[in-house]
Design goal:
Layout (H helix, E strand, L loop, with lengths): L1 H26 L3 H20 L7 E7 L7 E5 L5 H6 L3 H6 L2 E4 L2 E3 L9 E6 L7 H22 L6 E3 L12 E7 L10 H17 L4 E5 L1 H7 L4 H13 L5 E6 L2 E4 L11 E15 L2 E12 L6 H11 L5 H4 L18
Helix pairs in contact: 5-6
Length: about 350
Amino acid sequence: MATRSACRALERRFASAAAAAAAAAAARPLVAEVRSQRNAVFSREQARQRALYPRIEKIEVSMQGPGLDGTLLVMNRGMSTPLSCARHLTEYHVNNSVLALVDGEPWPLHQPLTDSCSMTLLTFKDSDPTLANQAYWRSCAALLGQVLQTAFKDDYTVELLSTPEVPVTSGAFCCDVALDPQLDSWTPSEESLRSLTKGAQQLIHKDLPWEPLEVAPSVALEVFSHSRCKQEEVEEKAAQHPKGRVTLYRCGDHVLLSAGPLVARTGLCSQYEVTALHSLGQGPWGLHRRAQGLSLPLQLQAHHTVWRKLRQRAEKLVEVSRLEEAAPPSPPDSTPPPTSQ
């Protein structure tokens, strides 16, 4: 009799826990709803900023670089971007430009110009491609985060954590994530990693632009209103910015925070592979994991034997605390879940 009562009590406990989990899942907004809300806020702020320049005003852009010194372009304030300038030059500049230097400062190719300036278009084959490589590594990590955000069924939460800034010499780009507690015991298989790689390659094939938007913290907090983790990151980044602002990017329907400039478009990536998903242990947002990958841009290809060696290195856990004391980034050496919805 006592055993039967204990079994019934256990059944009631499990039923109560299941009901609580179901209620929590029902209260949680769908991934598509969250993405739609973030997109709507991004588009609204983007339109507001564009409306700050109701009349066409001209600015002068003095181009710098091989074969361009002395070239002067007359462009539109608040409308023209470095990519607009590239389109006035040659197809090479349009297809190969990764980032711009505007008055010596790194500038995303899709970010409007607001004053007359000097400009240099950067490529991966420059004599010093450090800035281009940094932006590329950061962009590869952003792409990995975008894939992780949609790789799992709606039953599972995916919280993208602050992306660690790692140099190219680390051997892998990184994206930290906290998955749903239901997945704490899950260990990704090679098939799971291939599925994530396929998701990234699909985004690369679409050749989507990374649209930058510098905003006030209040706007970013509204964008990430469903994520306390991202709201804390917004507050941290705003505190570090000299003007107290943060930079958002949009790629397709995915809106993200970035610690620095990204390259112009996903199509600049070529060889790309997700190599590992390491457990970092329990943290403030649950079990923290570090997804890692390897990539080379369109202009720099590696033979499959070289790629295999690079991949083996990229599988090893990148320990960020050690890298913070490392030298500045340098160019790369040339020589069940996840389930797509």
